[in-house]
Structures are given as structure tokens and as C-alpha cells.
């Protein structure tokens, strides 16, 4: 996998940066600086190319996920995170996925996976139109969901479904409603506040 690792302070948590469709491992580095410049950063490039645009998993169309590929890519990403934690000496139990759009969606798939657990996640413009069979307990997790009131890609109903995924499993959810499919100052500030609570 193509990625960037930047070491932070000793024993600092690690931000796992997951870009949106068409992005790469450089896209969310400025966001990590705004969230907490003292944290480690592991920024990963999606392995799938859709018409030349990087993604974390395949899809058949907008909001139509290739579920087989989603599972494969989720498994690969979790394995990569475990190997990276060993290679760079960071504590994976203190890692925090930070995703935008497609990156948020692969993050949700990881969060719901039984082989890895996170205490926090910052998810911007998430969409997860998937029937989920498991009822993994997320009661020790804090999640920021930044969603668009007028998002042309993610409907309000889709956003409520994402909220439901986390609340039904006991997660502590912070909602930030912005205008569209975007990263905003309000979303960044909410992310910083959540991370302060984790320190």
C-alpha cells in the first residue's frame, strides 16, 4: 500500500487518514495538523482505481457497493494497520480513523469488523447503505459524524442510517450538520474537541 507515516510525540495516539474518491495520501495531512499536530499520522492511499480515481473499494455505481470487494479491502486494510503498528511502534488500540467520504465508508467497515477495535473515529460525509448482520458492541467508542444538510451524494435518510448504525451499538455520537459533501471549519473544530476529551 502507498502511505505516509509521520511520527508524533512519544506515546501519542495515531490518526489513520483515509481520503475521499479521487484523493491520495497527501489530501488529509493538513487536516491532521489542525486536529492535533502532536499525534502520529498514518495516511493511506486507496488501492482501487475507478476511472483513474483512487478509492478504498469498488462500487457498481453511486451508493452501490461491491460488498465482496468491500470485505476484501477491509480485511487487507486491517492487516496493513496491524503490520504498520508493529513496524512503527504505535499502539493500534489508540489509533483513530479519520475519513472523508469514501475514506469514512471504509472506516465504518473496519469499525464494524470483529478483528479490530477503535475508541474514537472522525467521519466526514459518510455513506453506508449496507445491511449489517453483526451487532458489535461499540459502547466504549466516541464517533464524530459530520454530515451535509444538502449533500448531493448522501441523502438525509442515508445520514440518519449512519447515525443509527452507531447509536444502536451503543457508541457516543457527536453530530455536526454542515451544508454539503464537505470538510468545514465546524467539522474540524468538533473533531478537535472530541480528541481533547480522549487525551
From TrEMBL:
Specify the domain of life of the species encoding this protein: Bacteria
Q: Which InterPro entries match?
A: AB_hydrolase_fold
What's the protein here called?
Phospholipase
Report the source organism.
Staphylococcus caeli
Amino acid at each position: 500500500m502507498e502511505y505516509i507515516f509521520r511520527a508524533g510525540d512519544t506515546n501519542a495516539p495515531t490518526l489513520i487518514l483515509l481520503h475521499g474518491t479521487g484523493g491520495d495520501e497527501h489530501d488529509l495531512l493538513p487536516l491532521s495538523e489542525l486536529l492535533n499536530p502532536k499525534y502520529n499520522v498514518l495516511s493511506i492511499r486507496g488501492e482501487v482505481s475507478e476511472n483513474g480515481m483512487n478509492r478504498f473499494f469498488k462500487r457498481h455505481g453511486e451508493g452501490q457497493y461491491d460488498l465482496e470487494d468491500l470485505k476484501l479491502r477491509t480485511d487487507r486494510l486491517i492487516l496493513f494497520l496491524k503490520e504498520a503498528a508493529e513496524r512503527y511502534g504505535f499502539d493500534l488500540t489508540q489509533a483513530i480513523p479519520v475519513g472523508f467520504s469514501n475514506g469514512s465508508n471504509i472506516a465504518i467497515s473496519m469499525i464494524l469488523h470483529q478483528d479490530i477495535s477503535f475508541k474514537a473515529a472522525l467521519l466526514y460525509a459518510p455513506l453506508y447503505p449496507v445491511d449489517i448482520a453483526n451487532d458489535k458492541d461499540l459502547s466504549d467508542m466516541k464517533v464524530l459524524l459530520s454530515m451535509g444538510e444538502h449533500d448531493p451524494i448522501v441523502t438525509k435518510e442515508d445520514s440518519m442510517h449512519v447515525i443509527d448504525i452507531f447509536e444502536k451499538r451503543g457508541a457516543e455520537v457527536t453530530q455536526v450538520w454542515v451544508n454539503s459533501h464537505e470538510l468545514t471549519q465546524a467539522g474540524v473544530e468538533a473533531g478537535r474537541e472530541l480528541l481533547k476529551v480522549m487525551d
